[in-house]
Write a structure and sequence with these properties.
2 copies of one chain form a homodimer.
Chain A lengths: L18 H10 L3 E2 H11 L8 H13 L3 E7 L5 E7 L1 H25 L2
Antiparallel strand pairs in A: 1-3, 2-3
The first copy, chain A, binds a DNA duplex (30 and 30 nucleotides) through helix 2, helix 3 and strand 3.
Chain lengths: 115, 115
DNA sequence: AGGAACAGGTAGACAATCTACACCCAAGGC
DNA sequence: GCCTTGGGTGTAGATTGTCTACCTGTTCCT
């Protein structure tokens, strides 16, 4: 287990399967590019969530294939080209689904931990 | 992704890495054998958490190797031989650690989802 | 004799994530 | 002109926990 490493870092590996939900949620705030998503998740979580590029980009491509998000090349405020993603209607459905599953699971775990 | 399956079942695959924590917590209520742990988690979570034997037994063996739990063959009330596990001091430390990480992550996710 | 429930277990596939790279561009300093 | 820093996208390969789908054996009840 990776958890045996001496230094614990707050990678989302602990919550495998929640990255998609987090990305979809981020895109609900407005279109964003990969780098921007990473930063948004980091700052909005109080520096807790660190998404690796090796996790993020495959996830974005996967979600694009599933048509949960749609992409477009644009130029950033820094005048750099970047791939902007926006959430689709299907993505919103997926997000609602993920959230409901997440809430159920967290409640279930809580009922165990607080027993 | 496994999540593409039509029927969603509440397997802990969604929260990969939390099984150890749940098992340790269960053992804090008292020594228990594998089959009993599965049932305890299922009933105490309101039938939400379904731990597969193919996940549980490898996890138990892993945790025994790490000395988080210790095992002993005994006979159940049903007069069947079973391997009873109890949590060790190291296991309690691990549990505290896991819990703290879990709480941090859940709070971080919540801060994203509720933004 | 047969079946349901109890109990432990494994082999092999799967898939998300991580580590560690590579590449390109823009802006600013010197 | 050159170099560094930060922005931005991406992949290959390894790791690893979990799942699916099996198997074995026992006890108890009818």
């Amino acid at each position: 287990m990776k958890r045996e490493r001496e230094v614990y870092r707050n990678r989302i590996e602990l919550l495998q399967g929640t990255l998609d939900m987090l990305v979809l949620k981020t895109l609900q705030w407005g279109p964003q590019h990969g780098y921007g998503i990473t930063q948004a998740l980091r700052t909005r979580s109080g520096e807790v969530l660190q998404v690796e590029t090796g996790s993020l980009y495959p996830a974005l491509h996967r979600m694009e294939r599933h048509k949960w998000i749609a992409a477009e090349w644009k130029v950033t405020e820094q005048n750099q080209r970047a791939r902007f993603y926006r959430i689709t209607a299907e993505g919103r459905r997926q997000l609602a689904n993920d959230r409901s599953r997440w809430d159920t699971m967290v409640a279930a775990i809580a009922s165990i931990l607080e027993a």
